[in-house]
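Sorry, I am new here, but would you mind making up a protein's amino acid sequence and the tokens describing how it folds?
***
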Amino acid sequence: MAELETLEKELISSIKEAADLKSLEEIRVGAVGKKGSIPALMSGLGKMPPEERKSFGQSVNKVKQAVTTELESRKAELERIALNERLETEREDVTLPMRQSPALTGRIHPISQVWEEITEIFADLGFSMAEGPHIETDENNFTKLNIPAEHPARQEHDTFYFNEKEDGTRRVLRTHTSTVQVRVMENEKPPLRIIAPGRVYRCDSDQTHTPMFHQVEGLVIDKDTHMGHLKWVLEEFCKTFFEVDDVTMRFRASHFPFTEPSAEVDIGYSKKGDEMIIGGEEKWLEILGCGMVHPNVLHNVGLDPEEYQGFAFGIGIDRLAMLKYGMSDLRAFFAGDSRWLKHYGFSPLHVPTIAGGL
């Protein structure tokens, strides 16, 4: 027992003399750690006679408790000393300029901003927004949209396919948000007036193309819908989006499997130095494709083409952002360069509205 008393005095003395928290931790590990001196005493209990085992174990526990109490007390004392030293030496210079808040320094990506602008405009025109999955069936992405089996868009050099399933079918990363139109027409009854913004995927990459980009599709289905309605919707959208009083648009005959007749739409603009001014007929820039929904598409989704007709259009959100805000390279949108975002990004507090301005 005398050995236990000596050990206790030595440990408590060394604890009181510990100069810092690091030294105290070393003492703690050496005293009550897994391989410390006190646990080593407990490991010898099994070799003692039963009558001595109980009293010796109680004595060792008392030493352990006393040492642990002293460790906690000294630790609290050293922490107070360390804190006081920091308070004495560390100073905050209140004359430094205040950092700007995240609300002022953060930036909304141009794609997100233009997405909100488009949504706001079409909501004001009475369109609702629809969404769909990015991974689609070949049937929804191609077949129901009247795209024939031999069409180039179905080839692997143009479309991202997943591995073939047991039944021979393969899913795809959707190549357009027209797949959302298919789902809406199959599950909702006309009249329909929806837009479907979202990400789409194609095997293409250069200054004006990326493997993943953003597109908004529009769809109107009713009994008396015609090309005049389509032209008015697109004109109103362009005037509001580019914030001009008038726009000049040119509809050129084209071909899309899912619309008939089909048209590509150009918008007129002029240049003043490096500035592009929307309006006039000096130069033309293609901005979208559109047309009347093909009767085969209506038939494929369970609608009677003799009763219903409609129009559809597809607009590249990335292209609109480039055109409106003067960005020349689409690849920079996805580079993650904070300097680019700081220059072209928008304040989080700037919420686009028709009344307040986009």
Notes: The chain has a mean pLDDT of 85. Strands lie at 128-129, 135-137, 171-173, 192-201, 212-222, 249-256, 259-272, 275-278, 283-293, 309-316.
